[in-house]
UniProtKB/TrEMBL annotation:
Organism, as annotated: marine sediment metagenome
SUPFAM superfamilies: Preprotein translocase SecY subunit
Transmembrane segments: 17-39, 80-101, 107-128
UniProt protein name: Preprotein translocase subunit SecY
Keyword set includes Protein biosynthesis: no
Swiss-Prot/TrEMBL keywords: Membrane, Transmembrane, Transmembrane helix
Pfam families noted in UniProt: SecY
Lineage of origin: unclassified sequences, metagenomes, ecological metagenomes
One Gene Ontology CC term in the entry: membrane
Keyword presence, Transport: no
Amino acid sequence: VASAGDWMQGVFDPGNWGYWAFLFVTVVVFTFFYTLVVFQQQNLAENLQRQGGFVPGIRPGRPTGEYINRVLMRITWGGAFFLGFVAVAPFIFSAIIGGGFSLGGRSAAFGITSSGLIIVVGVVLDTLRQIEAQLLMRQYEGFIR
């Protein structure tokens, strides 16, 4: 049991390349899966046809649905790989700089992690949306823009 624990500790050590590869693959797979599940529930082609919209050059109905799914797959893979890159960016940058990324020894080259970066960007965007909603509610259009 102790050897299995030592192995797990070695594999999931942030100073190990395997940890970052596992993190990248996990982020890409879960991002892709989550986005696919969310957008498959919306049935975009049917809603588009019901509202009188269409995609130029694509026949309404099933061909439109296939086209939207194909485009959605491409966009989702691109976004998933980008988010995976953001997740491992601190490790890549610290490896390039040469400062190392040994959290076990409590010396990290980067002060902000990828999750911290995502949280900061999300909070800033949400704050801007709330401010804009408040201003629109009070008829102060164009204040932020």
